[in-house]
Amino acid sequence: MTASTLIKGATLPDGTTTDVLVQDGVIAELGAVKATADRTIDADGLRLLPGLVDLHTHLREPGREDAETVLTGSRAAAVGGFTAVLAMANTSPVTDTAEAAERVYDLGRAAGLVDVQPVGAVTKGLAGEELAELGLMARSRAKVRVFSDDGKCVHDPRVMRRALEYVKAFGGVVSQHSQDPSLAGPTACCHEGELSGQLGLPGWPGVAEEVIVARDVMLARHTGSRVHVAHVSTAGSVEVVRWAKAQGIAVTAEVTPHHLLLTTDLLTGYDPTFKVNPPLRPDEDVRALREALADGTIDAVATDHAPHARHDKEHAFVDAAFGMLGLETALPVITTVMVENGLLDWAGVARTMSVNPARIAGLDDVHGRPVAVGEPANLTLVDPAAKVVVDRAASVSLSRNNPWHDRKLTGRVVATLLRGTPTVLEGALA
Ligand SMILES: NC(=O)N[C@@H](CC(=O)O)C(=O)O
Ligand SMILES: [Zn+2]
Ligand SMILES: [Zn+2]
């Protein structure tokens, strides 16, 4: 038996206010709860959401434990309000076997702060040629359902077709890093446009993403399988996804918090903190991404939390590693960009940050559940009005490549519960 928790006067995503008694890992009672509990959390004015689920996290273990480990990344996830994260396969070695997937899964369970669900590589070594052990990973203890060569695009259409056909058998999905390597060359490091010319930086155009998204939705239609578009960054990709969904094609898409707020003009200072793939895009893309998340064309927010050690990031812009932190700031960014601007209500936040990602990842038996009696108590308590100034030094991540440093954001995660056990209380690790 685990300690019980009484959450007093929380407001649910739909706006109703209730007490929530959490006992033995599940929601035991709702309404005006008379019972006492081992711990009481005053949730007056706070929103209670189903625990957040991140479809796209880089945990760097094994191989780059100087940048992040499963444990430190799990801490960042819990502080960010997450109860489940999908750990990308571009580790060293790559997660391309059942054993490798089980290892990541076990490290996550040992850390015990968030459900770490390994993503399996699509191809051996992310080399883009030979399919990885998709079936063995699916049947392993880790029950892998999401496959991705993220960091690299599965660019050979024949390989992509085979992967889609293969994962269909067990309801899996291929999450694609859409970046055509011949349109976005090996040196490309920012958005191709007027600014990249002025800065003298090799850029890559939005169309390098869009052609892959277009190809993949057609392959999904042909195979009758599911494709997921990772980190959508352009208005053109949104148009393709919108069209594909209207045709009934089984496509889902995610957008990162950074692509919803940060724009390419941040690159004028050549600060590698803002170097990321896909690159920060112009205003008109950002606007289209916000609208698409609001209208459901984009299903989910995913962080693409990409920690990098100082010695990989602190270089001249062209030489620095791609990627930025995201787990601890995702909820405040979405509150600021989407809720404060009236684009999403809290039910919309629950949908795009918990319900939809859980469903896409096949974790919806445990995560992204309604706040209802008998459901597993994976919960996130949010102060929707709190103003926070992000301080990169305060992060529990091992890395410091935080693009939000010094920004004032609205919204703060107050508490996170994983199967009824608080992992975060009063905004800090419990
Ligand atoms: N997003 C990034 O810029 N980098 C990611 C890889 C990826 O998501 O493509 C990384 O692993 O660092
Ligand atoms: Zn990627
Ligand atoms: Zn990624």
UniProtKB/TrEMBL annotation:
Catalysed reactions, semicolon-separated: (S)-dihydroorotate + H2O = N-carbamoyl-L-aspartate + H(+)
Sorted UniProt keywords: Hydrolase, Metal-binding, Pyrimidine biosynthesis, Zinc
Reported function: Catalyzes the reversible cyclization of carbamoyl aspartate to dihydroorotate.
Residues binding Zn(2+) 1, per UniProt: H56, H58, D150, D304
Xref: Gene3D superfamilies: Metal-dependent hydrolases, Urease, subunit C, domain 1
Residues annotated as binding Zn(2+) 2: D150, H177, H231
Residues of the active site: D304
Free-text remark on how the cofactor is bound: Binds 2 Zn(2+) ions per subunit.
Domain (Dihydroorotase catalytic): residue spans on this chain: 48-235
One Gene Ontology biological process: purine nucleobase catabolic process
Positions contributing to substrate binding: H58, L59, R60, N90, N277, H308, F322, G323
GO cellular component terms given for this protein: cytoplasm
Cofactor(s) the record lists: Zn(2+)
Pathway as given in its UniProt record: Pyrimidine metabolism; UMP biosynthesis via de novo pathway; (S)-dihydroorotate from bicarbonate: step 3/3
Protein name: Dihydroorotase
The UniProt record lists the keyword Zinc: yes
Family: Belongs to the metallo-dependent hydrolases superfamily. DHOase family. Class I DHOase subfamily.
EC number: 3.5.2.3
Gene Ontology MF term list: allantoinase activity; dihydroorotase activity; zinc ion binding
